[in-house]
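Glycosyltransferase, Candidatus Methylobacter oryzae. Tokens?
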Amino acid sequence: MKFSIIIPTLNEEKTIVSCLLPLQALRDNCEIIIVDATENQPADNPPHAHLADKIIHSPKGRARQMNLGASQASGDLLVFLHADTYLPENALPLIEQHIGDRQWGRFDIQLSGDHFMLNVIAWMMNRRSRLTGIATGDQVIFVAKKAFAAVGRYPEIALMEDIALSKMLKKIGPPLCLSAKVTSSGRRWQHFGIYRTILLMWSIRLRYFFGTDPQLLAELYSRGQFWKP
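Tokens:
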């Protein structure tokens, strides 16, 4: 099995190298594709070019970026990795060992940071995912390339594309939920306030369920606001 790790980026110049360095040991069995939507970046040979197999420039929009990366991927299995998230040790062998007939899955998650509620939030995310079969992008969704194409790829919406993809993939089969943990940044939770962000995320998910425009939800999410002024 060959893997393609697809990393959508936007203004990650200061953090992208720390994301890419741990992936270098995996390159014998996978390709690394960066899809960058940062404006005014050099078209060729950025400083981290040697740490990836492909760097693709794209219009902004995480779903659009991930779809573009997938369209140029050569792997049998696609791994969608956020630039502020780190894979556990032996992540790819774990997928290969356990995936069997499953078509998709995700990892458990832990959040970096020193606030005790970050552990509670991660536990709740993992538990909810197991109960619902819905994965978030922070949990690093992986999917067979053929299954990804069969469901029509990520819907190119401004937010909640991971939820929408999970719902489509569930029609093919349940996810493989690996207990190995990816580590994702808790900076957003701490920046906007732990409890405020919990309420905001539940509010956004509920409003998405009732049909609120994802573009509006994306604006609220980026500002940490419950309502548009």
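The first strand starts at residue 3 and ends at 9.
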